[in-house]
Design a protein that fits this description.
Blueprint lengths: L1 E5 L8 H14 L5 E5 L5 H5 L12 H6 L10 E2 L5 E4 L4 H10 L9 H6 L8 E5 L8 H8 L3 E7 L2 H20 L5 E8 L8 H5 L15 H9 L4 H4 L4 H14 L12 H4 L2
Parallel strand pairs: 1-5, 1-6, 2-4, 2-5, 6-7
Antiparallel strand pairs: 3-4
Helix pairs in contact: 1-11
Bound molecules: adenosine-5'-diphosphate and magnesium ion (MG).
Length: about 270
């Protein structure tokens, strides 16, 4: 199983949207068996699939992190999409975080790694949806410690890109102490429009790789599809946001871009 953590300390940068749409596309278009893990106490990802458990019920990623004798397969649930599975999360992750930190007998950073080994051969791909924080964030550290790669959704402005340095520093530390094969797969520029793009960024060399695919601003598609609990493609198959997600999935897998005409021509499109 190839594991990718989707992380950014900012909220509203499309982490959860990318997690579910990428998972969906890999499962349905590329016939991969995919596991999504909800590590955000807001439970947005679990809500979307209508699989969020009540706040006093910690069955899901919380229990997997707390009870190292448990088997994650007992908490993984099928979604309505074939080949797409979810380890749900909810408010109990807040308490889980505190409980992990106050346990000085069992390992704190490697819990998810130890647990996911038990189901490693049951899925092809796993995406971990993280809370919007990287400081004091034992859940994010657990995600990075067990991952092969990191995806960083980020708006294309200088402030947001500066914030990515925190993630790079954290990844360096994780590589050094917990997971030496962790790699930063790349920044994914999100919510891009003529108005909100920092043009300087398009030509500037970044310290880390970037995806060629940009996710353009499509507020109506994003809001209505989310309200209807539908993926972009299910809600509006022929729209720019849907095409961008399809290109992103192909790029992620190293497949041919299904919509090459929708890829930004960096120098022309936004300048
Ligand atoms: N391409 C897009 N264009 C405009 N809005 C988007 C787009 N993708 C997602 N959104 C909206 O942005 C908000 C934050 O998205 P979300 O994926 O929940 O971010 P995060 O998980 O990083 O907090 C949501 O309201 C979502 O519907
Ligand atoms: Mg989110």
């Amino acid at each position: 199983m190839n594991i990718a953590t989707i992380v950014n300390q900012k909220g509203g940068v499309c982490k959860t949207t990318i997690c579910r749409n990428l998972g969906y596309l890999l499962a349905t278009k590329y016939n991969k068996k995919v596991l999504l893990i909800d590590l955000d106490s807001s439970g947005n990802l679990s809500n979307f699939f209508e699989l969020r458990r009540p706040s006093n019920d910690d069955a899901g990623s919380s229990r997997v992190l707390l009870d190292l004798d448990s088997d994650p397969k007992d908490f993984v649930v099928k979604t309505r999409i074939d080949n797409l599975y979810l380890l749900p999360g909810n408010e109990s992750l807040g308490k889980t975080e505190k409980d992990i930190k106050s346990d000085d007998l069992l390992p704190q950073q490697n819990r998810l790694k130890l647990q996911l080994k038990k189901i490693n051969d049951q899925f092809d791909y796993c995406f971990i949806d993280c809370p919007p924080t990287v400081t004091n964030a034992i859940l994010v550290i657990n995600a990075l410690a067990c991952s092969d790669e990191v995806l960083i959704p980020c708006p294309a402005n200088m402030d947001a890109i500066d914030g990515v340095n925190h993630i790079i520093n954290m990844v360096n530390t994780i590589q050094q102490y917990y997971n030496d094969h962790l790699t930063i797969r790349g920044v994914i520029f999100t919510r891009i429009s003529r108005k909100n793009i920092d043009r300087q960024l398009l030509t500037q060399k970044l310290a880390i790789p970037r995806f060629r695919t940009y996710i353009r601003e499509s507020s109506a598609l994003a809001e209505y599809s989310r309200a209807a609990n539908l993926m972009f493609e299910e809600y509006e198959p022929d729209s720019k946001g849907t095409h961008d997600m399809a290109n992103l999935a192909a790029e992620y897998l190293g497949e041919k871009f299904p919509y090459p005409d929708d890829l930004p021509n960096e120098l022309n499109e936004f300048l």
